[in-house]
Amino acid sequence: MSFGTEPRREGFLLNQATMAQISGVEAVIVAVSGGGDSLALLDLVLTWSKDRPDAPRIIVATVDHALRNGSAGEADWVASLCMTAGIEHHVLLWVGPKPKTGRSQAARDARYDLLCGLAEAHQAGAILLGHTLDDQVETIVMRARRTNDNSVGDMPGLAGIAPVSHHNPSGFYAVKLVRPLLSTKRDELRNHLRSRGTPWLDDPTNDNLTYERPRIRLELGHTNMPPPQQIVVLGDCVARQRQLRAQTVASLIDTRVSTHGTGRIQIGQYSDLDRSALTGLLSCLVGVSGGGRHRPTATAVKPIVDMILAAQMSSLTLGRAKVGNQRCGVTIERELRHLPVISVEPGERKIWDGRLAVSNVEGCEPVFVTALGNLSCNGADVCDRSLLVGRLKHNKHRPDVLSQPVICQPDGSYQLPLSDQDGLLSCQKSPRIRLRRYCASIERYSPIWDAEIRFAVGRLWSQFSEKSAQN
Questions:
Q1: Cα–Cα distance between 181 and 12 in angstroms, integer?
Q2: Cis omega (within 30 of 0) on the bond before 7?
Q3: Are 63 and 114 in contact (CB under 8 A)?
Q4: Which pairs from 343-349 meet CB under 8 Å and 24+ separation?
Q5: Within 13 A of 280's CA, how many CA atoms are on the CB side?
Q6: Torsion sign across C-alpha atoms 421, 422, 423, 428
Q7: CA geometry: angle at 149 spanning 148 and 154, to 5°?
Q8: Would you say 427 and 435 are in contact if contact means Cβ atoms under 8 Å apart?
Q9: How far apart are CA 393 and CA 300, in angstroms?
Q10: Edge to edge, what strands does the sheet with 434-437 contain?
């Protein structure tokens, strides 16, 4: 049993266009659970890297979710396999209490966060994942059954798993999630491992019908289901539509959207936009202003679009954002509800309200982050709040003003983050505190199809920083 030796079949099983996404990176993390898919990925990547002078350093990681007996032993098995082959390996343990509901999503978040942390520690530019064509088909079917929208164009999730995604959970280190096996069937990978005499582990969770994916996998074997190839064609079609819509939204952000120094977003001319374009634009901007983890669906945005197209001078709330239709245009701002207060201890990084990344890694004392509108609620002197509002030179009752973040110092003083010429944020009283504008719905997980939106929002934030610095 050996990794990365002849015969060379990586060109047939690895998607070369996807592998091109790691060109130029110095190191990559290969996520290996011990299952057949991820072990085959490791073997193929090692073979691919041979005879390539610019090949990245390969680091293997196994995440132990500690959700069932035997998971630690499986991680040790992979570690032993890698040690025998002379491959650098790390076991990443998900520590702390596990949720009783939504466990699959929580485990996925924890896994990607741990992998991203390891990538940052080793300055790796990409994380390679072993999702297969079978996973793609299962994902599309699962999402199709969950959606309530009527039109395929309004179901972006039907694009399935993206071959490449942008992942930045901390706000300070972005990494690519790369999936080069999405065009390869699971059986092909198993046959590849058999030909190499390489064993693998079978995760009992894959056969547990308590979970949705094993149930879908079982159903796909029945003749009344569409053939897998037809399902993949549907996913490819939706992915192309999603990318085109993202390009449209990005163009509209660049040409129709402006922002104020306090973060209020305004859409200027919109009367010539069709419903689809306006829906996509509003969904994106509500996600930016509200700080929610996901952008609202087309169905959720529909009442706001109806209000705007009917020229009703009113406002509605969605996703923690307030959208108002006024004579000057459409405004979007964070509503004054559920504004959190967080403590960031020394050595910690946290996301505040889905809108601000805070790093206290170099700090010596804890800091608190809250909203300007919360200061009086927390017993702060009203004069402190008035002083900060005065510095913003805006109406002190406006939601976009009162929802702005405030850094609370250990000595009891308060400070609004300051923008520098590069659009970064700083806290003058605590120079060791690092701050960065963040958008949870775009930065935590952004598939390659939505890349243009991410870039356009970045340009919008630069505009925000310039105006904020002037206030």
A1: 10
A2: yes
A3: yes
A4: 343/367, 343/368, 344/368, 344/369, 344/433, 349/170, 349/171, 349/172
A5: 23
A6: negative
A7: 145
A8: yes
A9: 34
A10: 349-352, 356-359, 434-437, 425-426, 418-419
Q: What is the DSSP secondary structure assignment for residue 1, as one 8-state letter?
A: -
Q: Which residue has the tokens 């193929």?
A: 44
Tokens representing 248 are 């449209």
What does the DSSP 8-state code read for residue 393? T
CB atoms within 10 A of CB 201: 16
Rounded-to-integer distance, Cα 383 and Cα 246, Å: 45
Residue reference for tokens 């402190």: 384
What type of residue sits at position 231?
Answer: I
What is the C-alpha to C-alpha distance for residues 399 and 41, in angstroms, rounded to an integer? 50
Single out the residue of 259, 288, 256 nearest to residue 466, CA to CA. 259
Reference 262, options 381, 416, 380, 434; nearest CA is 416
pLDDT tens digits, 228-238: 889 999 999 99
Residue closest to 137 by CA, chosen among 191, 85, 88, 184: 184
Beta bridge partners of 257: 267
Distance, CA of 92 to CA of 33 (rounded, Å): 11
Q: Which of 145, 228, 142 is nearest to 182 (CA)?
A: 228
Grouping H, G, I as helix, E, B as strand and the rest as coil, residue 425 is strand
Distance, CA of 298 to CA of 159 (rounded, Å): 16
**Which stretch of 85-99, 175-189, 259-273, 285-299 has the lowest confidence by average pLDDT?**
259-273
Place of tokens 């889905």: 354
Q: In what order do the strands lie in the sheet with 27-31?
A: 89-93, 57-64, 27-31, 126-128, 175-178, 164-167, 446-447
**Alpha helix stretches (DSSP H) within 227-272:** 228-256
Considering only residues 23 and 51, tell me which one the structure prediction assigns the higher pLDDT.
23
Instruction: Tell me, rounded to whole angstroms, the distance of Cα 425 from its chain centroid.
Output: 21
Please give the model's pTM, rounded to 2 decimal places. 0.90
pLDDT digits (tens, 9 = 90+) for 338-357: 999 999 999 999 999 999 99
Give me the mean pLDDT over the 83-89 stretch: 95
Distances (CA, A) of 458 to 11, 312, 332, 424, 470: 36, 31, 17, 11, 19
Closest CA to 68 of 211, 214, 205, 208: 205
